[in-house]
Amino acid sequence: MEYQISSGIVDSYFQKFKKILNADVGIVGGGPSGLLAAYFLAKAGQNVVLFERKLAPGGGMWGGAMMFNDIIIQKDALPILDEMGIDHTNYTEDLYVIDSLQVTSALIYRASKAGATLMNCISVEDVVLQNNRVSGVVINWAPVHRERLHVDPIIVVSKAVLDATGHDCEVARILERKNGIKLETPTGSVVGEKSMSVYEAEQATIKNSKEIYPGLFVSGMAANGVNGSYRMGPIFGGMLLSGKKIADTITRSITELV
Ligand code: 48F
The pTM is what? Predict the structure, then answer.
């Protein structure tokens, strides 16, 4: 029994790991936009892997607003909530309140059930850059980074990479810093996020969700961060719609590659 417990876990984990070493899409960050992108990409039949450095994916959604565990969603995002089976309560004509724990756990569950491979406790520390195209990610155990251990990483190749790392836009910053390349942003670099302006930020998140370098796409707060747009706080419609839009964009782009 003891042996079977261990060998079952090891066999299953390495089968899962092997499947994503050559993925269609590598998503960095398990916040709402990354999880939604994972769900829609998996639904579209892509071999998609999402890397999250924390124990639990979910990013900034678990904590609601200042740890009040409810969040706000706009009417536009209701079809996504309904598809995921998430409860919502109408608050004003356009705004709905949802339980942050229910929505976060539902997004994780639905992404996984749709066929996305979710890998937690793993940090992306670099990208693969071949012929001026981002072609994968370089990963290591998150505790290796935390302990500053000198351990070489593992490489995962993919046709597309999504930076869904939130406010820090980590992948875009790494690509720019290490390679001195020009990004598809207003300045050609990571512009950095502006202060709070909810309406503008929500519109911008969706518009900014796009390919910013061949093979590298951005969503959620990373999309606003790289493009110099505003933050929006505990309203999440833009995040969900951003995840859906970028999944469609990536699927189209991958199809054109073939
Ligand atoms: O920040 P986060 O929730 O991303 P998002 O999808 O959503 C933003 C909102 O939560 C909120 C907001 C909305 O109103 O403003 O902030 O843009 O999740 C980003 C996730 O990426 C992980 C990080 O731990 C978090 O869970 N992450 C960041 N860098 C890396 C990473 C990395 N290098 N490797 C792996 N995971």
Answer: 0.98
